[in-house]
Amino acid sequence: MSSSQEGLFGKNKTLVLILVSFLAGAGGMYFFTKGKHEAAVDKWEPQMPAASVMGSVAGSMAGVKPSAPATADSSNAPGLGDLLPRLEAKVAANPGDTDGRILLAQTYGELGQRAKGLEAMRKLHQESPLNDRVTFALGALLMKSEDKPDLQEALRLLEVSAASKQAAINNLAHVYQGQVMVKLGDTQGAIKMLSSYLKTLPAGDERRAAIEAELAKESKK
């Protein structure tokens, strides 16, 4: 897998810190991009930091500061495998916690349990087919595959997500659409799609940087 798709949910250290925070009761929903994360709590209305998709430091959303557990010394942090049973127990105790269920599916994926992660996300998507976060998260998991049927399904889900009124989901979905189209062998289609989307963003829009960087990368291929 190329570096552009290597870690939708970031490195394990980042996920460990987020799991510690989540299990400590901080709550919130997280998307991971290139080892960083977009975080939003309560209303889940994140603002997209400029070029976050390309690896810049993601900001804390809605003025929410990281909890103490999340800033603990990472050298003493447990591994994902150690945290998984606690996350599974928390989700089992509150199956209505959409954020927790998405995080659990992401964790399965990071631990190499891809089938289990997809099964969990598909079940959640069946229960909440109109939830933007769920649709996007399932598409993001599927796009890590190299199998054509998975990529085609990811593209369909990301097309739905690209129409989301939530700016962070909308922008990331467009970027991911382009990446999936490239994996499917349609680089020119990806460039055309991203170029069209870029034209819809006003000058000075902080989301433009991610799209422009993605276009520059694909145009070199």
Commentary on this structure:
It is a single chain. The protein has 221 residues and is mostly helical. It has a single domain, classed as Tetratricopeptide repeat domain (Serine Threonine Protein Phosphatase 5, Tetratricopeptide repeat), CATH 1.25.40. It has nine helices and two strands; from the N terminus they run αββαααααααα. It has helices at 12-23, 80-93, 98-110, 114-127, 132-142, 148-161, 167-183, 187-200, 208-219, and strands at 29-33, 36-40. It has a two-stranded antiparallel ribbon with strand order 1-2. Strand 1 and strand 2 (36-40) form a beta hairpin. It is elongated. The chain starts with 11 loop residues before the first helix and ends with a helix.
Report a brief summary of the structure.
The protein is mostly helical. It contains 9 helices and 2 strands.
Point out poorly predicted stretches. Answer: 1-10, 28-77
Between the first and last Cα atoms, what is the distance in angstroms? Answer: 16 Å
Our Rg estimate from Cα atoms comes to 17 Å
User: Hey, roughly how much beta strand do the residues contain?
Assistant: under 5%
Number of domains: 1
Looking at CATH, the homologous superfamily is Tetratricopeptide repeat domain
State the shape: elongated
Number of strands: 2
Can you give the helix content as a percent range?
Answer: 40-55%
Q: Record the strand order, biggest sheet.
A: 1-2
Q: Supply the CATH architecture.
A: Alpha Horseshoe
| Category by helix and strand content | mainly alpha
Summarize model confidence as the mean pLDDT. Answer: 74
CATH class, named Mainly Alpha
Largest sheet: 2 strands, antiparallel
CATH topology: Serine Threonine Protein Phosphatase 5, Tetratricopeptide repeat
